[in-house]
Design a protein that fits this description.
By secondary structure, the protein is an alpha+beta fold. The protein is built from 5 helices and 5 strands, in the order ββαβββαααα. Bound molecules: FE2/S2 (inorganic) cluster (2 copies). The site of one FE2/S2 (inorganic) cluster has 10 residues, from loops.
Length: 161
């Protein structure tokens, strides 16, 4: 077992982990931050995306023990300080960018990472960036609309599905 200390959603946390413990397991089972979903555990679906030092990362694809000193943000850390929804979360709500909601935490985290590096992405750029996030409800159209709206662009200009 290894002791690991990292900052998660602005708070310093420590825990004993095995070398094989995935970040997704550390977050969900160690810290009870169950907003990070696990859909495949094989780095394919994107449900488990979190930010590690500002980059979108599939948390089922990294070992917690390798993240000593890292800054991690999960979906639980995305709301505004007063508890209200962030602009991206609000856009998903307003544009019906979720159905069952299983993919939503990963979609929101990926979208936030995209907008941090490209504040006004085109529809094609959004679709390309979200390629690693699978929505089994196939609600992609409204997800892309939500990301366009969150970037301050007119989501209404998107062609109908
Ligand atoms: S659970 Fe990590 S990519 Fe599917
Ligand atoms: S909303 Fe159900 S998987 Fe995306």
């Amino acid at each position: 077992m290894t002791q690991v200390t990292m900052t998660v959603n602005g708070k310093s946390v420590s825990g004993e982990v095995e070398g094989r413990t995935l970040l997704s397991a550390f977050l969900r089972e160690g810290l009870v931050l169950t907003g990070t979903h696990v859909g495949c555990d094989t780095a394919q679906c994107g449900a488990c995306v979190v930010h590690v030092d500002g980059r979108a990362v599939k948390s089922c694809n990294v070992f917690a023990a390798d993240l000593e000193g890292a800054k991690v943000t999960t979906i639980e850390g995305m709301a505004n300080a007063d508890g209200s929804l962030s602009a991206i979360q609000k856009a998903f709500q307003d544009h019906h960018g979720l159905q069952c909601g299983f993919c939503t935490p990963g979609m929101v985290m990926s979208a936030a990472a995209l907008l941090a590096e490209n504040p006004k992405p085109s529809e094609a750029e959004i679709r390309h960036y979200l390629e690693g996030n699978i929505c089994r409800c196939t609600g992609y159209h409204n997800i892309v609309k939500a990301v366009l709206a969150a970037s301050g662009q007119d989501a209404g200009r998107m062609a109908a599905e």
